[in-house]
Automatic annotation (TrEMBL):
It comes from the Bacteria. The chain crosses the membrane at residues 48-67, 74-92, 98-123, 135-155, 175-196, 208-232, 238-255, 285-308, 328-354. One of its GO terms (cellular component) is plasma membrane. It is a multi-pass membrane protein. This is Xylose transport system permease protein XylH. GO terms for molecular function: transmembrane transporter activity. It is found in: Cell membrane. Keywords: Cell inner membrane, Cell membrane, Membrane, Sugar transport, Transmembrane, Transmembrane helix, Transport. Pfam families: BPD_transp_2. Its main location: membrane. Part of the binding-protein-dependent transport system for D-xylose. Probably responsible for the translocation of the substrate across the membrane.
Length: 393
């Protein structure tokens, strides 16, 4: 029997998205009132994407760890520093082939994740202890490789893969046209997918939201996509890193929501004993989550060194906190088994808007940390209270 989701349920499901929109409007108003311009300046949107690309990548991997039972990885910032140091040594100092160096860096990230995953999944060392040790170990190795020095600059051939724009032309009219047309194409794909997904759920008897709400969501998403496309078109075009982020987000969204191994992550986080009795190899699932986290930390490192055009000893500092915060703000449960890649991305964007907005307003860095801490705590408190309310009912 098919049931329709109520407006209240739909609003609750998208509450974090509404909070993000309200926050962006609030910051834009404050910035405009202070005479510091606008949050929606074309160059600012492009900077927002590049500055927070590492958070999106790391939050995607961190979500998989959290799904397994509220576990986290404290070592990702140090892994980013280590892989970045390795990239600088191979590409800049030794002059190795860029593609082979990238492969070695990604393999190193994967190996580190597999190393930690082995102790966590098969020896059953608590993830907090294992990754805390990794945070110290990999940071130390990074400092040894760099010898306390910063390696720069990276060759242009490397930077264009992570820090350039498409289309690569100085013709501003052409840049805007191509970017906006691409935005229109993305809108058509979103509309087609949304309607097809709704129809599929309807045929299978799943819960669906009211048609009016679906139409409103399509209109909102299309307007947002066209707005971003027009702003990027007025700047330099589409950042190459945005394409990488889209591939990662779409790929992991499909993996977690539509694949059997992805659903095993939720089963493990929901009840490990029940998952094991149902035939799921819980050790393998846990191992995969941390091996994957190491791999994505390697990707984030390659993006980070391209953005800063250097490999520094301080790279990756507090990156793990941004990733964890993004997941919890985006709706991931502190107990595991609940959360989506889309929610984690919304959380990452929210953290980016907070950082960017407060920086433009000239708010002291110490106050910025305090605000972010309160926001993360509020997100976890909301999750805990919501679960208590459900149990009481």
């Amino acid at each position: 029997m098919r049931h329709s989701l109520g407006i209240k349920d739909s609003m609750k499901k998208n509450s974090m998205l509404l909070v993000l929109i309200a926050t962006m409007i609030l910051f834009n108003g404050l910035i405009s009132a202070s005479g510091r311009g606008s949050l929606f300046v074309p160059a600012n949107i492009s900077n927002l994407i590049s500055q927070n690309s590492y958070v999106v990548i790391l939050a995607t991997g961190m979500l998989l760890c959290i799904l397994t039972g509220g576990n986290i990885d404290l070592s990702v910032g140090s892994v980013v520093a280590l892989v970045g140091a390795l990239a600088g040594t191979l590409i800049v100092n030794l002059g190795w082939n860029i593609y082979f160096s990238i492969f070695i860096c990604l393999l190193t990230g994967l190996a580190i994740g597999a190393w930690q995953g082995f102790w966590i999944a098969y020896v059953r060392i608590p993830p907090f202890i294992t990754t805390l040790a990794g945070m110290l170990l990999w940071r130390g190795v990074a400092l040894i490789i760099l010898n306390g020095l910063t390696i720069s600059p990276f060759p242009e051939e490397y930077l264009r893969y992570f820090n350039s724009f498409l289309p690569n032309t100085d013709d501003k009219a052409r840049v805007f046209t191509i970017t906006f047309v691409l935005g229109v194409i993305i809108c058509l794909v979103v509309i087609a997918y949304t309607l097809f997904n709704r129809q599929t759920k309807k045929k299978k008897g799943y819960q669906i939201e009211p048609l009016a709400y679906t139409i409103a969501r399509i209109v909102f998403l299309s307007a947002a996509i066209l707005l971003v496309a027009s702003l990027l078109g007025q700047h330099k075009g589409i950042p190459v890193v945005l394409i990488l982020l889209a591939v990662i987000v779409l790929g992991y969204s499909y993996f977690t929501s539509r694949s059997v191994p992805g659903r095993h992550l939720y089963a493990l986080g929901g009840n490990e004993k029940a998952a094991k009795l149902s035939g799921i190899n819980t050790n393998r699932v846990l191992f995969f989550a941390y091996a994957n986290m190491g791999f994505l930390a390697g990707v984030a490192a390659l993006v980070g060194v391209a953005r800063f055009n250097s490999a520094a000893p301080t790279a990756g500092t507090n990156y793990e906190l941004d990733a964890i915060g993004a997941c919890f703000i985006g709706g991931a449960s502190a107990y595991g088994g609940t959360g989506t890649v889309g929610g984690a991305i919304i959380g990452a964007i929210f953290m980016g808007v907070l950082n960017n907005g407060m920086s433009i307003l000239g708010i002291d860095a110490n106050w910025q940390k305090a605000v972010k801490g309160i926001v993360v705590l509020a997100a976890v408190v909301f999750d805990v209270l919501s679960k208590k309310r459900v149990k009481s009912n």
